[in-house]
Amino acid sequence: MDNGLRRSVKREPSAESDASNASNASDASHKGNVKPEPEDASSLSEFPLRDSDTPAGATSALQPGLDQGSGDDGSNEPDTDYLERLCNENTLPSLETGVEAASYLLDQLQNTLSTHRNPDVDSWIKTIIDLKKRTAPTRTVVGVVGNTGAGKSSVINALLDEERLLPTNCLRACTASPTEISFNYSDNPLELYRAEIEFISTEDWIRELQVLFSDLLDSSGQISREATKTDSDAGIAYAKVKAVYPQETREMLAKANPKDLANKPAVRAILGTTKKLKETTAKRLYQGMQHYVDSKEKSTGPADHRKKVDVPMEYWPLIKVVRIFTKARALSTGAVIVDLPGVQDSNAARAAVAANYMKSCTGLWIVAPITRAVDDKTAKSLLGDTFKRQLKYDGTYSAVSFICSKTDDISITEAAESLGLEVETSESWEAAEEMRKTRLSLQSQINNLKKKKAMLGEQLDDLEAETDVWEELQSQISNGEAVYAPSANPRKRKRGGTPSASLNSETDDNQDAYDSSSSDKENSQPEPNRKPLTEDDIEEHISSLRTQRKQIRGERRSLDSQIAGLRQEIDKVQQEREKVLADVKAICIQGRNNYSRGAIKQDFAMGIKELDQENAVEEDDENFDPDEDIRDYDEVARSLPVFCVSSRAYQKLSGRLEKDDFQSHGFLSVEDTEIPQLQEHAKKLTEAGRTSHCRRFLNDISQLLNSMKLWSGNDGTGSTLTDSEKRLEEQHLKKLLTHLEEELESSLKSSVNLIRESLEEHVFENINTSIPSAIEVAPDTAYSWGAPRAEGGLFWATYKATVRRQGVYSGASGPRDFNQDLFDPISRNLATGWERAFQRRLPAILESFAKETGVKLQQFHQAAKARAEQRHTNITGLVTLSSQILAHIRTVHGLPAVVRAKITELQREASRQFTPVICDAMANAYTICTNEHGQGSYARMKDAMINHVDTTRHSMFRQATEVVKGQLETMCRSVMHDIAESIQAVFDTIYMDYMRTLVGAEVDRSRKIPIEERDMRNRVNKILLSCDKMFAPALGESAFEADAMEATTDEAVIDNAEAYGANEADAEDKKELLANEADELMQANIRQQGSTNEVEDPFVSDDEEFPDVMDLIKKERPS
Description:
The chain is mostly helical. Helix content is 63%, strand content 5%.
């Protein structure tokens, strides 16, 4: 068949003019192809064929004069080809360092090229700009799912190292919008935190209002009485509508039209727009977002006061998606965290956003509280069989991670008993009990000392009162009055009395005051038997009282010191006890974590095993063997990442949650919370994508540099071959190219047929065999929805709400999907075959194609190189061709990963197209049931539903499967088109590179390259000749070492060149023999390939509906 590749070989080599060559090269560059140009006479080293790149079965005779480079071939010459080594590197830090160096190199080349502009230069600059755009990190989307109350927002906030960033609303968790959090690449200090709040379109809001009003209005067209119940469908609908239209009364809403409401100026101004926020702190951004996502229903003031306040319009029902950009370390490598509220939202736009995120997720995190994760078998049930089966369709089982939240919520006693940790914690419990007793004993001592201190205080009060009396006497005697010693007061408190005697009532105190007053009066009354006091007597007694008071104060200070010491001992004992209890709690937390981790891993594996067995029974129940494992379920369990985290403990240990009365006991460090491990897990999820991206980028850089070396080294003189030599070399090279073209075409066509065969066997045949069973059980499925409650039927209100929403509803009783229920018989039978085709068979076919193509490119290069060396045709130009062919092989080897990513995207889309078609087929039934009102409406709804399903069941399943088949056919064509285009680009580059380098072109001698352009090319060439050492640091070597190795290599190459020239005559016969042997082997290979191609093609009948891909590309390609 005269296809595109064959035609590309038959066209004449570039012998027209340099202008034509430049035009063709420019076109190729615009398509992303490498731009080939004539030989590079400045290259100084050759590139070895690495062992890993040598095809199995390739004979040494096909490799005469292989590049005798360094390192890999065992020679003593140093390997200075750093970029080439980087392209084969697997260490991510080295690759990313290499990308940074390449980005700097591209800037240098662009600046130099910009000094002289022409079409060729513009093409190079465009290629450089396109490459620079690819230096940004790739996105790795991680979906986070979990039920309400699972702690998703808290986990994500901790992951981001923010106390509060995600917008939350504790009143309406069930209606939250999808929230995407990604890294903020902005360098503006005024926008360290950014957010975008996207609102739904006017059409989407009108559709939702129609659904809300169907819930809100009763059969008479008035607001339903159920609207007063906040948890009812009518109550939820009323809350949403009133939030957006707070000034509308119930009567106004009952008469309102959805279109009129959507077109109110305040609402219309926000619909379909995106609000952008920029802040310097997380707190301010959070507050700014809360203005849009939060509810104003939280006022706790008096009801009559709230009614007087003008309630502002709220925006939360209108939000489609929230995007947050932050400089979190966990996101710095390209991870994008998406908080998914669920795909069964009443708002179709939000549900579609959530579904699209699910399709594009590279990883999936399932969050559940640790207190329920094991008991509820969350990992096993995995949010339902439908969700679990969809993971199998998507091939994302291996990307699932499980997060057990709230590990700080634990009862130590119950945990120790249930986990059998009594022995391990017994010593700690005993030590804690001894410390408790010690603390009580110390507290008792403190209490006794306090009593003593109180008694001393009473004595001190008595002494001070007595001192006041004697000082009064001293004042009286100084005035010349006769004074007498006060009489003893029988009611006076005495030192050393008991505490009970010293603590008297207020009456006693008053009486004491009266007695003291009386005694003063008595002192003033002379008695015949009493002796007056002298000043010395009074002074002596006052001095004695002061001494006693000083002594008591000293005793009180001593008691205070003892109490303080005992308190310190209590604090020390308490701290030690808390540490022991924290250790016990830590043991219990870790014990529960380890138990939960193991149980969840096993439950997850058993959930997959049950689904596998269910599918195996569906496929072939007669040969099903339950004792034979379909896969290694122990490995499935081991490979499931499980993190048991405490967000609150992490935040507290990180210095946050200052206002929260939360103690982080049981977590000795932030590592014990496992949030740091989760952060590293988020970064690690991106490694595979980043590694692949970096290697492809560096490989493309290598191709660009090789092409630019050929272009910049062109001095305008062209080939030195005579016309007859040129025709001879051209004929030989075209023969090799023709053979390569035929082999590439054969491999591609074979791969196309194998992919189609795999889809037919594993997907289409399973679909065809499953349709009859789906048709048969469809009426029973429809009956089960309205069956009596004892048989699992739905409540009338749930049934009504489901049909209003086109068969998809999530209420208090859980999610329901009538469309999925009808499709389940096909889905169960198809899941395993779908997974086998897209996760195993197709990747194997693509890998085989890439490996085979790489071998063919190697064989072609060796044959062409042997001929060129034998003919002495541009020996130095072979250096660049050797490097270029390795870059092409790496490109081909990287194709399966790129193609598989596209296959994954398209097959995920196709697997989700069954239920939408079924939903369309069921639309009339949903409309009829929605319009039923009044007495007997439920019975009429059920009858209408069953009748409709019975009528359409024979067509709707076939329609659904035909749509999916069509999408898979389109996927196959699209993927093969991409492969063929990539291979065509490689072949085109090879054609031009080898023809121009080994054959040369006729040059218009009158045309001279302008001096400015020649100067620019020289400067570019100098950059290219010295740029390789820029990549040395990426491999752990310094630029100084790179310079030394480059100098050594230059000397070795010069010596080799001199030796080659001296011995050229002696080696002529040997070269001729090697070239002849290479030609003979090549012809034998061609004959063998021709014999194998004569086998009848089993897929020849598909040619009409699946035309040759190369022809298709050539027709689509612009001339």
